[in-house]
Amino acid sequence: VTFEPKVGVVGCGLMGSEIAQVCAAWGLDVVVVEADSESLKAGQGRVEASLAQAVRRGKLSEEAEASARAGIRFATDAEILADRVLVVEAVPEIAALKVDTFRRIDAVVQDADAVLASNTSSVPIIELARATGRPDRVIGIHFFNPVPVLPLIEIVPSLMTAPEVVDAATDFASKTLGKNVIRSADRAGFIVNGLLIPYLLSAIRMLESAVATADDIDAGMVHGCAHPMGPLALADLIGLDTVAAIAESMYEEFKEPLYAPPPLLRRMVSAGLLGRKVGRGFHQYP
Ligand SMILES: NC(=O)c1ccc[n+]([C@@H]2O[C@H](COP(=O)([O-])OP(=O)(O)OC[C@H]3O[C@@H](n4cnc5c(N)ncnc54)[C@H](O)[C@@H]3O)[C@@H](O)[C@H]2O)c1
């Protein structure tokens, strides 16, 4: 394993909490940075819930859970990232916020060889790299939701990423975390969202034009194509704000009409109906 086990995770929402959980479950020393104390508390709750679920699913022993808990520290001050050799950024999919976050990470991380990674789904890695004084150390490490369950990581070098950083990130994903790795060029959506997002948006357009109900659209793909869940349930799982943001970036990049977020998706986001994380999206989650 190429990495000293000192990982920093910035942003502890849906993804950051699970990335932190998985790293800690593999015995890594993890620090988590959140925006403010309220979000930090919520993030800590998500990490603990995710660890508890891993125990319930028989994936983690109770001793391992206890040592994983002890292996994670939480802070609102980015200074805690100073000694990290790998930082994974997982703040919301807003380019300006990510650029600003990379500027802050670059300012505090001391090891010049540290790898600065983003879990972005669609913001160009090169834009994040250029916010730092070390663009060759910046790379995309894109996890899939739910992180403890899905065995894939996309590795996304920018045009400036050093080959040894690509190797280190690949080793971290495959050897340290035991995930399957695929590599994508730095294009909005990468491989999986490049295929998935237009499919999810097509399902939303189908609902919007009253072809069928949300339940029937989802049942069609579950029972007709053996997908584990339908497209609208999957959009709810990802978070409709995140789906809309990824679609916007992909549309911005390619100007492909299939990538443009349909009005219903925008209205759902404006209404705060963001999917499973708030209890209601295309479906209800009591
Ligand atoms: N949701 C998914 O299925 C999924 C899958 C793969 C990748 N991603 C990507 O992961 C990233 C995070 O998505 P998410 O679904 O976890 O979003 P989320 O909204 O659940 O979590 C984002 C977290 O970042 C925190 N945050 C905001 N500003 C911050 C700052 N300045 N410093 C530290 N923390 C800050 C927020 O408080 C929040 O807890 C996005 O780039 C998204 O595209 C999401």
Question: How would you sum up this structure, described in words?
Answer:
- The protein is an alpha/beta fold and 286 residues long.
- It is 47% helix and 13% strand.
- It contains eleven helices and eight strands.
- It has helices spanning 14-25, 37-56, 62-70, 95-108, 125-129, 163-176, 192-208, 214-225, 231-238, 240-254, 263-270, and strands at 6-10, 29-33, 72-75, 86-89, 115-118, 138-143, 152-157, 180-183.
- Strands 3-2-1-4-5-6-7-8 form an eight-stranded mixed beta sheet, sandwiched between helices.
- The longest helix has 20 residues, at 37-56.
- The model has no long low-confidence stretch (mean pLDDT 96).
- It binds nicotinamide-adenine-dinucleotide (NAD).
Overview features:
single chain, 286 residues, alpha/beta, eight-stranded mixed sheet, binds nicotinamide-adenine-dinucleotide
Task: Give the bound compounds.
Answer: nicotinamide-adenine-dinucleotide
**Low-pLDDT segments, ≥5 res:** none
Structural class: alpha/beta
Gross geometry? globular
Task: Give the helices and strands as they follow along the chain.
Answer: EHEHHEEHEHEEHEHHHHH
The overall pLDDT average reads: 96
Residues in helices, as a percent range = 40-55%
Terminus-to-terminus distance: 43 Å
Strand content: 5-15%
Largest sheet: 8 strands, mixed
Radius of gyration: 19 Å
Number of helices: 11
What is the number of strand segments? 8
As laid out across the biggest beta sheet, the strand order is 3-2-1-4-5-6-7-8
